[in-house]
Amino acid sequence: MFIAQVITLYPEMFPGPLGHSIAGRALREGRWRCDAIQMRDFATDRHRSVDDTPAGGGAGMVLRADVVARAVDHAAAAAPDLPVLALTPRGRPLSQARVRALAAGPGATLLCGRFEGFDQRLFEARAIEEVSIGDYILSGGEMGALVLLDACVRLLPGVMGAASSGDEESFESGLLEYPHYTRPAEWEGRTIPEVLRSGDHARIAAWRTSMAETDTRLRRPDLWERHEDARVPRPLARGDE
Ligand code: SAH
Question: 197 CB less than 6 Å from ligand 1?
């Protein structure tokens, strides 16, 4: 079973939306587990404080390294095999490849930030992978943890209806997926591309590949460049080793 441990100030946010639909069914079937851990339980002062003002001044509050580390150590003792990931906009952007690797493993302990984030010494003192879910700022790591878990859970064995629908998806090949159509065959005067109704599977496959490539090139030049770099070994430029 895939084990998710989530360290958070808002344990009632879990499993939240992951209690529904595909992830919810998988949860009830025992394919994964979601254990929320209240970070505040690891505070030691009378006010159970988890944060303090930023060293050097400035707005907001910072999560204390000592309190958070106690929570992380508790989670690690409960499930020593799980990698620990902190949600932070300073982290490495989450990728489908990382999601796939996590889903193939025993689970993950996820650390959700709040306020201005974590005292940096936490990441020096503990083996914690910093991950971001994108270049925008959330009010807390909980939504990020839900995103990461949703992406992992759908890949667990037996979770997705059509087993094949994992492989063709956007990003799996380094490209966006081709566009989809369904009935009605005509809607507001618009028809479905003729090739998709031809029944010619080779032509359909070729059309889909070509659409995936065109759309990736136009919509995501960054992805397209990486895809091309991986495919066509570039001749060594002068000065390169
Ligand atoms: N001051 C920080 C932002 C703090 S937002 C900065 O500018 O970098 C508060 C918390 O929300 C963070 O600690 C983190 O856990 C979460 N969070 C915000 N944006 C995120 C993102 N893009 N990816 C992952 N977690 C994020």
Answer: no
Same domain, 97 and 146: yes
- Cβ–Cβ under 8 Å, residues 39 and 66: no
Tell me which of 153, 188, 206 is where a domain ends.
Answer: 153
Rg (CA), the chain: 22
Structural domains counted in the chain: 2
- Three-class DSSP category at 27: helix
**What is the per-residue pLDDT across 195-227, written as a single tens digit (0 to 9) for each?**
999 999 999 999 999 999 999 999 999 999 999
The answer, as to whether pTM is greater than 0.90, is yes
Q: Which of 6, 63, 87 to mutate to test the pocket of ligand 1 (most atoms within 8 A of CB)?
A: 87
Answer with the one of 125, 153, 181 that is the final residue of a domain: 153
> Of all atoms in ligand 1, which is nearest to the CA of residue 86?
15
